[in-house]
Amino acid sequence: MAGKSLSDKFIPYALRSKSIERGYYNKNKDFAEVMGLAVINALKSSNAVEMSKFGEMTTALESENGHTVRKIRFRPNEAFQKRISRRHKDRIRRAVIAKFRLRMAAAVAAFLLILCFVGYGIYRIFGADMMIAYKNAVVRHRLEQERRNHEKEEIYLAALARKQELEEQNRLARLAEEEERQRLAALAAEQDSDNSSDADASTDQQIVAYRHEDLDINQPNVYWSADKDLVVKVGGDNEETQDMEKGQYREEIVEYDGKLYKKLMYIIIEGDTLWDISFRFLDNAYRWPFIHNLNKYIIDPDFILPGDPFVIYTEMNE
Amino acid sequence: MNVINEKCARVIIDELGIRGKSTAKVYDAFWKFIGDELIKSGKVTIAKFGTFILKDTDDANYQIDFQPDAYMCDELGAK
Q1: In this structure, is residue A300 part of a structural domain?
Q2: Which of A20, A146, B31, B54 has the greatest number of CB atoms lying within 10 Å of its CB?
Q3: Gap from B19 CA to chain A (nearest CA, Å)
Q4: Residue B29 and residue A17: Cβ atoms within 8 Å?
Q5: Number of domains in chain B
Q6: Is the whole-model pTM more than 0.90?
Q7: Whether A34 contacts chain B with CB within 8 A
Q8: Is A19 in Cβ contact with B28 (below 8 Å)?
Q9: Which domain does B74 fall in, by range?
């Protein structure tokens, strides 16, 4: 199928630009041919015909090989000539750019080619050594990775062991705490037993134990244990401790109702605490409330005065 | 303002049946179209008229060369 003729192209163009109206022209005629004929017809009576902004067609008599002949010339419109000149410059610029890009591409390709050749040459010359070095590097890298993994594993195991150790410590601490609590509970029970078995002490400095038969328990300041195995009289004779110096300690065995009791007498010195005294004489620091209970003249257990006597009765097991 | 030779206009009116006022518009549009085609394709041939060719000159510029058709030469008595 042949390409579109000039008229076929022009008619849509003219319709779009509203130069002609649809249906108001002879469709059987070739537009281009008619336009040409129009110019030719005009040139028959005129030497120059303006072709709008396209140019000017002229005819003139010129001398050629000694003969005068009529020549047909076309002179483009000045604006049109500028237009095509601008287009020409653009084309040249594009051509220059394209050439530059082509040269750059060629240069890059040549550079890469040279690089390939150089690389290949180096490989051929030092290839074996390079491969060995590369393999060594790979092996070193793997070993290093394994070492790091091992270190990480060790750190993890250490952390795990530490965690287990802490858990074990916590468990032991809980057990110890539980044991201590049980021990203290037992101790408290024992103290209660002591308090109940030992005599209820007096508030005075002197506590004197008597045999049950020798003492009327209905007298004031007389206390006895639950089983009445120990009876004390508070505020009795204090001659026993009058001749004692600070820090002096005296121990007596008292027999009561077939049982032996140890009577401890002690004069407080500077720096003593109930805690220390309990630990020293009763082998248990936690029994200090027992001492406090027997020596009720002590109002504040944290505040004891040097020179004051302590009297403690304890049941002897043997 | 569109200006057209009277004899040109007569041919266009007679041959194409276009009304008087539109003649100059069609004439202008046609030659503008030819200019565009020439720039686009570098060569435009009009039957019984001639061929316009865009030529690259030595001074790095374009020049439009026109080669009249034999029919045109005959009609105008030109070579």
Answers
A1: yes
A2: A20
A3: 8
A4: yes
A5: 2
A6: no
A7: yes
A8: yes
A9: 42-79
User: Quick one: chain A helix, strand, coil %, rounded to 5?
Assistant: 55, 20, 25
Residue A304 token pair: 């004891």
74-93 in chain A: CB under 8 A from chain B: 74, 76, 80-81, 83-85, 87-88, 92
The answer as to whether A187 is a domain residue is no
Q: Could you tell me the two tokens for A280? A: 């020293």
Low-confidence winner among A50-64, A137-151, A253-267 (lowest mean pLDDT): A253-267
Least CB-CB distance to B5: which of A24, A46, A53?
A46
Total residues found in chain B within this entry: 79
In this structure, is residue A275 part of a structural domain? yes
Q: Do A217 and A287 reside in the same domain of the chain? A: yes
The minimum CA-CA distance between A46 and chain B, rounded to whole Å, is 10
Q: Each residue of A47-82: pLDDT tens digit?
A: 899 888 889 999 988 888 888 888 999 999 888 888
Same domain, B20 and B49: no
- Identify whether residues B22 and B48 lie together within a single domain: no
B77 inside 8 A of chain A by CB: yes
The ipTM is: 0.90
**Structural domain harbouring A151:** 77-162
One domain for residues B50 and B66: yes
Which residue carries 């530490």 as its tokens?
A162
Residues 6 or more apart whose Cβ sits within 8 Å of residue A237? A206, A208
| Residue A224, strand partner residues | A231
